[in-house]
Here is the input.
Amino acid sequence: MKLGYKIVIIALIVAVGFFYFQGVKSKREERYITKVNSIITNIRHRDYFAFHKELLPELAQKVSIERIQEYMKHFAIERDVQFHINDISKKSDIITLNGELESKKSSIPLEMIFQEKNNTLYLISPNIANQTIEGVDLEFPQP
Here is the structure.
């Protein structure tokens, strides 16, 4: 086989490999974006129970619906908001997404940490505009 044919075949193999891995990467990012958009929609609609179901089961046992309600009251998310990923980091089964919620009026920083169990993404820590669910203090009436 001539050298020119070998070069063309190797270039084709490299190009196919490159586009395959780009496709896998974009599918993974699409999965994360879909999950974040679902969570943002839950916050926008004030759907406390749907948001609670997104949490890691161990965390869901510790976080009450009242705490989620208190967390969500800080946000007025518009319908036209878009999530843009700035960075994705993955360490074993922990995925951290850094990005921004952008609308026509403003841009809000967002960091979501997920844990993948049984091919399902569970929310560990939502951090929207430096507000975390763990940082919400509830004041109950004293007896």
The helical segments are 3-44, 48-54, 57-62, 65-72. Residues 3-132 form a domain with the Nuclear Transport Factor 2; Chain: A, fold (CATH 3.10.450.630). Residues 43 and 116 are 21 Å apart (CA to CA).
